Here is the input.
Amino acid sequence: MSFRKVVRQSKFRHVFGQPVKNDQCYDDIRVSRVTWDSSFCAVNPKFVAVIVEASGGGAFMVLPVLKTGRIDKSYPTVCGHTGPVLDIDWCPHNDHVIASGSEDCTVMVWQIPENGLTQPLTEPVVALEGHSKRVGIITWHPTARNVLLSAGCDNTVIVWNVGTAEELYHLDSMHPDLIYNISWSHDGSLFCSACKDKSVRIVDPRRGVVVAEKERAHEGARPMRAIFLADGKIFTTGFSRMSERQLALWDPENLEEPMALQELDSSNGALLPFYDPDTNVIYVCGKGDSSIRYFEITEEPPYIHFLNTFTSKEPQRGMGWMPKRGLEVSKCEIARFYKLHERKCEPIIMTVPRKSDLFQDDLYPDTAGPDAAMEAEEWVAGKTAGPVLISLREAYVPSKQRDLKISKKNVLHESRPAPASSTGSATRLSATAVPTTVPSISIAPVVGGRLEEVLQELQALRLQVKEQGERISRLEEQLSRIENGDV
Here is the structure.
């Protein structure tokens, strides 16, 4: 009995990754060598932050996104910590505010000047002291302003109000061992954590209770990760008993068995998942790997669908991830990673190939914007709200090929006076109907009275293009069937 491979239809099937050219990388950055499984890089639409090697304390570098090329050795850093920096995270509601956690047991919040640093930044806006051991996890609340969560090697989770520099919640009895990572739910009412005791916990910080717990989510002893998805499900990465890397999807209502479990390979680097709630695509990057795998999460079995793998030659030391509002919408870019090498940071652009240069509604639904849905005090009082969404249509910049200057120039350079109605028709035609790749259709004959002839020719061309498009689709389907043996 032969099993035929069926090709699943997905608009993300042909997503491809492409590293930028060398002059668009950030060169000569001494990336931190500290042994800690965080991403070492945080990105927002204005700045790229990278944890770097520093003597006599801890530091991270903050570069304006457009400051590419070789970075001078004397470039100023954020260097207020007395021990190595382990984790950094940009505030989702203010692109100039970044938080950092360090081996010196403190959490610091920094204000970055408008155009980046011109001198070393040593004084934080606020220093938060409450952990007794090093602080390895920092993550901002997704919807409430000034709410920051930190977790340390003292197995304690603290939720802070940065605006008043006070502890809101001190959760020290939930995790018996080292916490690997923490992820807020989409509306920030819960968070999930992965712990060294192999358990995944769902916690309500305001009530101070563990809502659900799955013991031995992954059998292996190596680090796990757990993240919340937009629909409330939980996605985990970890290791099997035989040290094979795994992905799993869990329903919080029933944690007995995973909805889906996939084994990847037997490499030993911890898998860092990056989730896009708008497209339901998860990108998985292994520390020390030279690849990024991406999967689509759907409502129907098998739930986790492998899409493709981006591979490169150099292994990654860490990875940054640009929020959706920082992407180039006009180029159909759906994700941008900032891959850390030993001495440089290399942007990698993920693109969905599209023929049209119009705004793609299906790729860019409304996404989380920079405005907070509520204040910290409202969240503490029990209010829950999802992110304030914005449309990316305003960020769409039409390509230069759609410029109308050619048409206007032709009209203006026409020596004979033209009737007003004909000119209006001609201008409208050039703006909406003439294909951008065929600017050679002259306006002069149109003005002279051959409008009907040009319209007929244009109609014929359109029909031809439509027929060719349908033929290409049929051939692609036929090729797909042949490749999968379904003939």
Q: What stands out?
A: The CA atoms of residues 120 and 220 lie 43 Å apart.
